[in-house]
């Protein structure tokens, strides 16, 4: 079974990338993300060793919606709907913002890669195209 650990950003307008972090995503096929009643037409992208699903906010009315990860479990053949969390469709503030860092704890004995999630990074030159 796939599990969601975190996601971000939690608010954004159409076209903004949304990152879902977890584990077991490679056990799903035909992965999609649903924002409220709007199922994103194109399949979501599973990246980073089955720990990261990336999608985009669809064109939909502004307001709060439920964010849901959809897919067929390749082990059971059953469709899964995994509640990710709440999301608000709408404009984001100008500038850059970090919405999350994964993992939220780091050990001192091993090298751990960090993912910094947010929006507007390209607008301020923090990292070219990273969202």
Describe this structure in words.
The protein is mainly beta and 131 residues long. The chain contains one helix and eleven strands; from the N terminus they run βββββββββββα. The protein has one helix spanning 121-124; strands at residues 3-8, 11-12, 17-23, 28-35, 38-39, 45-47, 52-56, 63-73, 79-89, 97-102, 115-119. The strands form three sheets. It has a five-stranded mixed beta sheet, with no helix packed on it. The protein has a four-stranded antiparallel beta sheet with strand order 1-3-7-6, with no helix packed on it. A two-stranded antiparallel sheet has the order 10-11. The two termini are 27 Å apart.
**In order across it, which strands form the biggest sheet?**
2-9-8-4-5
Element-by-element helix/strand order: EEEEEEEEEEEH
How many extended strands?
A: 11
Helix content: under 10%
> Structural class, judged by helices and strands?
mainly beta
Give average pLDDT, whole number: 78
Radius of gyration: 15 Å
Quick one: biggest sheet? Answer: 5 strands, mixed
| Shape annotation | flat
Strand residues, percent: over 45%
Low-confidence stretches: none
Distance between the ends: 27 Å
**Helical stretch count?**
1
Which properties best describe this structure?
single chain; 131 residues; mainly beta; 5-stranded mixed sheet; 4-stranded antiparallel sheet
SSE blueprint and pairings:
Blueprint: E1 3-8, E2 11-12, E3 17-23, E4 28-35, E5 38-39, E6 45-47, E7 52-56, E8 63-73, E9 79-89, E10 97-102, E11 115-119, H1 121-124
């Amino acid at each position: 079974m796939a599990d969601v650990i975190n996601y971000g950003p939690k608010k954004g307008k159409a076209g903004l990338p949304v990152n879902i972090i977890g584990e077991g995503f490679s056990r799903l096929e035909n992965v999609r993300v649903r924002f409220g009643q709007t199922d994103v037409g194109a399949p979501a992208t599973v990246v980073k060793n089955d720990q990261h699903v990336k999608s985009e906010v669809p064109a939909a009315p502004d307001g709060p919606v439920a964010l849901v990860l959809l897919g067929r479990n390749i082990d059971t053949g059953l469709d899964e709907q995994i509640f990710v969390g709440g999301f608000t469709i709408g404009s984001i503030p100008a500038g850059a913002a970090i919405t999350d860092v994964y993992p939220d704890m780091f050990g001192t004995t091993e090298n751990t890669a960090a993912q910094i999630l947010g929006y507007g990074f390209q607008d301020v030159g923090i990292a070219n195209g990273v969202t």
